[in-house]
Write a structure and sequence with these properties.
Elements (H helix, E strand, L loop, with lengths): L18 E7 L27 H7 L11 E5 L3 H10 L5 E5 L5 H12 L7 E6 L3 E2 L2 H16 L3 E6 L10 E7 L7 E7 L4 H10 L2 E11 H11 L1 H12 L2 E3 L2 E3 L2 H5 L6 H4 L14 E6 L3 E2 L4 H7 L8 E3 L2 E4 L5 E4 L4 E4 L4 E5 L4 E5 L6 H10 L10 E4 L2 E9 L2 E8 L7 E3 L3 E9 L2 E5 L2 E5 L4 E4 L5 E4 L6 E9 L8 E4 L6
Parallel strand pairs: 1-2, 1-4, 2-3, 3-11, 6-12, 14-16, 15-17, 16-18
Antiparallel strand pairs: 4-9, 5-13, 6-9, 7-8, 7-9, 8-12, 10-11, 18-19, 20-21, 21-22, 22-29, 23-30, 24-27, 24-29, 25-26, 25-28
Length: 494
Amino acid sequence: MTHKFLLPAFSDDEVDLELLPVVLSGGSGTRLWPISREKYPKQLLPLVDDQSMLQATVARLDGIQGLLEPLVVCNEEHRFVVAEQLRILGKHPKILLEPFGRNTAPALTLAALRATKVGADPILIVMPADHVIMQGDNFRESVMRAAKLAEKGMAVTFGITPDCPETGYGYIQQGSPLDDAVGGYQLARFVEKPDRDTAQAYLDAGDFLWNSGIFVMRATTWLAALEICHPDILATCQAALAGGSEDGDFVRIDRSAFEKCPADSIDYAVMERLTTGQAGLPASAVIPLAAGWSDVGAWDALWKVLPKCPDGNATRGDVLLESCSNTLVVSESRLVACVGLNNLVVVETDDAVLVAHQDATQDVKKIVDRLKADKRSVAQWHRKVYRPWGWYDGVDSGERFQVKRIGVKPGAALSLQMHHHRAEHWVVVCGTAKVTRGDEVFLVAENQSTYIPLGVRHRLENPGTVTLEMIEVQSGSYLGEDDIVRFEDTYGRN
């Protein structure tokens, strides 16, 4: 069998490496509910500091020589938020849009195919967008060591030196040391998340590392290995990318082709196979990483990385504690007062409250599953919903009415639209609105209002230089977000 993708040739020559960050931003973060939700997941949130986790991930490699503009893979629904967050950083990467998730192996494959489109073969630094790394210098130094192995055609991953018998992570067993100055080891095997006794045995053995989910390899190294291990993923991703289109910074892939793609992780699809010695597959390595890493997979993990008081408490927002210890309290919209708590997690948002024991935070996903089964929107949406033109906040609702606060960014415009079942009353509280109502076009200033009758075409725009804020009162027999007919839309939505 002839393979299209060949492993990179080994070279001892010193070369200038081209490093391409590939940021995988497709997770939903259900175990961090109610702050993380499917339509606005944890990687888009500032959980540790003022930057979102996506922004921190993209900025993490700044300063490394040979660094290319990053390539981000994200869900199509998140495209405008992702683009805006990266614009704030001064980054304008290509953003590959998945119409739906197919796990990390197809996501990396799309990125690798895109990276080699013009004949290039950069070294990919593959990073999930929802990890915390506290010691950036150590991480960058480890990345450069891994890049030296990747330049030789190896597939490299990082293993985190464990400090406790953690049952929430998969593990990597390191093999013999490599005959190399970079300090890596051969990959011996991957193992699934263990029970407590097995995790303790791994910790005692001393040669097991937590699986970080971060990889470094040439684009062609991944594609050549995938062609052997999972040619169906490669073929469907090739078809999806070939049938797609570009729209500015966005790379849209063909939905019908990608729908046929098997869902699999990078580990299962390729990395675990690299430990078998199968002919044609690249050599693999693991580099131990000590850089304050956490995947912030659940609330107890976030508590571990946040600053704490002498009693072990970590707080965010308006929080007042009395006689509490080892407790995480997060407040988003009001004062939260706690008395006599120990080893608990309390999370308040404007539409939900979570209280959990630290040892049970992995089970928050079960709550989300129940909410989805009951078709409750709180599983997927925050009360404040972000749109490419700004945001809206559902303030109140009842039978036949709904009240929203709406913010429109300077220069932005909502679609030209119509509703079959509701009328709308608009009151401007800040800025100036340009309103299209039927054949009329007029301005509405602060403290002025207007009315949009049911069935009339209308559009809201912000012609000013400050955010337009207004109150919208909807009234009618049906108030769902799907009661909308779009005639024109700046953002290409249906």
